[in-house]
Amino acid sequence: MIAFGISIPDPDPYLEYAKPGIELVSEPDSLVLAFSSVGTAGRSLNLLLDAAATHDDLEALVLVHTFTQLDDPSFCAAVRRAFADPNVAVAGCAGASGVRSLAWWEGRTSVGDVILRYIDHGGGELPAYPWLEPAPPPQVVDTIDGCVMVLSPWATRNVRFDEALRFGHGHDLDYCLQVRAAGRTVTTIDTRVIIHRSLDPIEDWDTWLEAHVQLAAKWEGRAPWEPLELGDERTRARRAEAQAEAARSVSYARRLAIDAHVAELQRTVDEAAGSLSWRATRPLREINQLRRAQQARRPEPPGRRSTL
Amino acid sequence: MIAFGSSITNPDIYRDCARRGITTVAEPDSEVLALRSIGSIFASYNLLLEQAAAHDDLEALVLLHQDAEIVGAGFCDTVRRVLADPEVGVIGCVGAIGIRSIAWWDGSVAQASFLHRYPEHGGGDLPAFSWTWDEAPPYARVGEVDSVDGFVIVLSPWVVRNIRFDESLGQLHGYDFDFCLQVREAGYKVVTADFKAVHSHSLMPFVDPESWVQAHIAVAEKWDGRMPGVGNATGTWLERARRGEAMRDAALLVDHANELLLEAQLRELERALEAMQNSISWRITRPLRQIRDVREAFRARPNWRRFRTGAQTGTTTR
Q1: Distance (Å, rounded) from C-alpha B104 to C-alpha B98?
Q2: What is the pLDDT of residues B173-185, one digit of tens each?
Q3: Is the ipTM of this complex over 0.95?
Q4: Which fold has domain B2-225?
Q5: Is the CA virtual torsion B134, B136, B139, B144 positive or negative?
Q6: What is the pLDDT of residue B9?
Q7: Count of domains in chain A?
């Protein structure tokens, strides 16, 4: 039996995103554990592990973030393929090896069909990690993205999330590192997942920075955390501070460039939209919009799956 | 006599930018020192200092990048008025206080009377916040600062004859901040004044982050303990390292997210254009091409590879 576990801080995103995804991919005998969140992310997830572990017929526990929508009807088959290797303890849709920090995406990545569905700027879909050059799944990795974590029965019963990681980031990486340190394997699987969130990747940067530091303090010097080989602490600090300001400067410059060019393009669009011919054809466009709206109200053909 | 000096690697850029501004603001007796670059900006500027110092009637030396154009009337009058204060050693039109590294823009910027003219994607202008004083924010002001942006700097005769650019620091980055620190350590003021310049350069602050990183480290090591705030921070070295690495990764993630943001905004515009295309297709050809151009241009990224691999090309010791 493949179980699904969700820690729910806010019911709305669960109902809108995670729940339809679970309904799409789950099997008739699947168990769905939907618990209200409590305390740290680690504590909430451990509750799910404890509940799933009591089921003798457990094949896998799928931990789904409330903003994550599973979108692959063959998801369970992909999970079983991954866990056909008895050493595999954790599987996910995106991950990396050579990880040196909370920013796992700076390692050697492997990503399935992971989509970002955003509502900013009129909404749309984009690849979730367009800046990466990932290897296709399946790949053995050190960690996976916690938007979807599939745990083997062994992992469910023997490894727990670190409840001392209190900043809401990095519990997924920490869990995978524990699994790797125990000699088990973490792997990516080829599946389609939709992540619903803003284009801004982090809501609260201060807590993300604290989580980054806390995780480094826990894992530095311990396998499988990649050694940094950056000399003494003074040299490392100097270099990190310089790199931080270099990255900030480049990021700021690129944002300026984006703003400048989008504004320029917007002016071009506005000029075209304000032209005489565009205004003259406005009634025709309104008629077309009305026609499309009427078509949209017609019943869907049978068998066609609705999407968000 | 007010002299003007430039180190030139590209004569065409010098002619179109620095030379044009000098022609506008210089006085009949002004000396123009147009020097072909002799290597690093540190070495080239030191040679210009030597040449200017030889003039007994020197009132000021204006050092400007080949891509910097001083604009507006009254430049020389402004220079004389500010240098009437014998404690002033350096003048600029962009400066900040609370600067702790060569990233002067991470300080509290007090004046930014420049216009950034970029060549990419057909070109454009980005006016800084005090380019137009009427629209400047309340914190905009002229006066004493920690450092000025070196793209246009005016030096007093004493500074020209007594301070030199530190050629041990590298090729380009950090020369201005280090020079201002030397001037302040010698007891002279670094100030901003009310003049303007156009700086024509790429949108990217540097092509290879590694050389900038090395300059950042070198300047921090040089001034830590000599000038308050520079090169030091709270916490142990290990704590600083971990905090710096976290901030670096956060900044990289923000930069990665820039690509998502750009793509989302372009798609939004594309949708608007495609809606129009149904009615007036001939009009949308040019904007769609522009969108493709911008998307292509932003695929070129800085070389972060060394960050990811943790490669170290320099060491710091004490």
Answers
A1: 9
A2: 999 999 999 999 9
A3: no
A4: Spore Coat Polysaccharide Biosynthesis Protein SpsA; Chain A (3.90.550)
A5: negative
A6: 96
A7: 1
